[in-house]
Specification:
Layout: E1 3-11, H1 16-24, E2 29-34, E3 41-47, H2 50-62, E4 67-74
Antiparallel strand pairs: 1-3, 1-4, 2-3
Length: about 80
């Protein structure tokens, strides 16, 4: 079973596009788009485990220049 999550990202003024492009190149990221509202970029990513998600994806996202805050929202299930 894989771990999936949306990550909502706030950026420095004028950095949303460069942040979205940088994030899109991280392996495991399946979506990275600029949005309007309280957050500037939304992304979706998946990994095989929560440990891998943190090590391989979150740590790389948080290292992207221009990010001021992130909020991770795990997907609980896509089956209804």
């Amino acid at each position: 079973m894989s771990v999936q999550a949306y990550i909502l990202i706030q950026t420095e003024v004028g950095k949303a596009n460069s942040v979205a492009k940088a994030i899109a190149s991280i392996p495991g990221v399946t979506l990275s788009e600029g949005v309007t509202g309280p957050y500037d970029v939304i992304m979706r990513a998946e990994a095989n485990s929560m440990e891998e998600f943190g090590r391989a994806i979150l740590s790389k996202v948080q290292a992207v220049s221009g990010i001021t805050r992130t909020l991770t929202c795990p997907v609980t299930s896509s089956e209804y």
